[in-house]
Amino acid sequence: MKISGVDIRPGNILEYEGGIWKVAKIQHTQPGKGGAYMQVEMKNLQDGRKTNVRFRSADTVERVRLDTKDFQYLYAEGDSLVFMDRDTYEQIQLPADLLGDAAAFLEDGMEVTLEMWEDKPISVALPEQVEAVIVEADAVVKGQTASSSYKPAVLENGVRVMVPPHIGAGTRIIVDVYERTYLGKAG
Fold first, then answer.
1. Chain segment 107-137, per-residue pLDDT in tens
2. Total structural domains in the chain?
3. Are residues 148 and 161 in the same domain?
4. pTM recorded for the entire structure
């Protein structure tokens, strides 16, 4: 589907110069002289490159719809991760760097969503929130509890997050996978 350069929005997937790009940021600019344009920051979903492109209202770009499919994470094998199609039980191997920093939160049996383009997986989406156990938390400093200060804690997967002072080691918490922030205690 072709869209005008000024209709581009963050999160759109575009086909541009032979690649598939995800729009990260946009900025609409209307200079005093000349026509308005959209400054677009994009990331290539195939090789990870980033670029900034100016699109004028007369420019058109192809917007791509990605197919999504539910998979289950099985195990890691070297630098690859093995996933199983939940419908056909077919297994596929993907490079671990396709997940980026979120890979630390992968657990055996976790359900993930793969975004496919021309039947090739180009990104893996984990659940937004996961439960994790704190294995190490700093002690509360006396007098520090009056303010809304947070202290560092280490999760079972080695990820560091900031937690409220009353949270100690052994506590199950809910963590935002992509922001790496504390959301609350697990019920």
1. 999 999 998 888 888 888 888 899 999 999 9
2. 3
3. yes
4. 0.69
